[in-house]
Amino acid sequence: KQWYQRRVAITAGISGAKEEKSITFRSIKNIDAELFHTNLQNCLDSNSTSLTFEEAINQYNSSCLSVINNHAPLLTKTIKDRKSAPWFDGEYKCQRVLRRKAQNLWKRTQLPEDKSDCGSVLGPVLFNLYI
């Protein structure tokens, strides 16, 4: 799958070009939990006893990291660093969350009281658009 389309920003001679930054993450959604548990257990059971506490901790950390890297390797993605709009502040974001929750509840239940709650959260003008 192609998760994104990579575009190279040409910054020479263009004012206001978007900067790109790289993020590193792990995709843990597709890990087989049973296989991960078995591999982790086998790896930790096979570790030999270390002489010092610090060596034991280092061996434990490296064992866990190797199992995690096998099941969910690090992925790097390049994204454009975009500044948010000046009107998109914390208060607006909270209102959007409340609106979306009320909408989803009304769509799921189709109850009249949820519809009225949705109308009070959305406001009369926006509520008429969503009916």
List the helices and strands and how they pair.
Blueprint: E1 19-26, H1 33-46, H2 53-71, E2 74-81, H3 90-109, H4 112-122, H5 124-130
Helix pairs in contact: 1-2, 3-4, 4-5
Write a concise keyword list for the protein shown above.
alpha+beta, two-stranded antiparallel ribbon, 2 strands, 131 residues, 12% strand, 5 helices
Describe the structure.
Strands 1-2 form a two-stranded antiparallel sheet. It has 131 residues and is α+β, with helices and mostly antiparallel strands. The chain contains 5 helices and 2 strands. α4 (112-122) crosses α5 (124-130). The chain starts with 18 loop residues before the first strand and ends with a helix. Mean pLDDT is 77; it is low at 1-15. The chain is elongated.
Task: Give the helix level as a range of percent.
Answer: 40-55%
Number of strands: 2
Q: Between the first and last Cα atoms, what is the distance in angstroms?
A: 36 Å
| Neighbour order of strands in the largest sheet | 1-2
Structural class: alpha+beta
CA-atom Rg in angstroms: 25 Å
Shape: elongated
What is the chain-wise order of helices and strands?
Answer: EHHEHHH
The low-pLDDT segments are 1-15
Count the helices. How many? Answer: 5
Give the oligomeric state. single chain
Overall residue-averaged pLDDT value: 77
Content of β-strand:
5-15%
- Let me know the largest β-sheet: 2 strands, antiparallel
